[in-house]
Amino acid sequence: MCLQCLAMVGETSILGGESGNDYRYPVRMNHTSTQESSLSGSLRAGFTLVEIMAVMMVIAILLSVAAVGIQNIDRGQATTSALSVTEALFDEARSAAVGRGTRARLLIHKELNDSEVIDRERYLSYMCVAVESTNREGDVEGAGWEVITRGTKLPSGVYFSPEESERAAESIGVGKPGTMRIDLPGKDANGADSFKECYYFEFNPEGVCIDGENAGLDPGAAVILISGTRPRDVEEPKLMKNNKVGFVVWRNGRTSIFRSPEQIDLAR
Question: Burial letters for 173-187: b for 16+ Cβ neighbours within 10 Å, e otherwise?
Answer without folding.
Answer: ebbbbbebebebeee
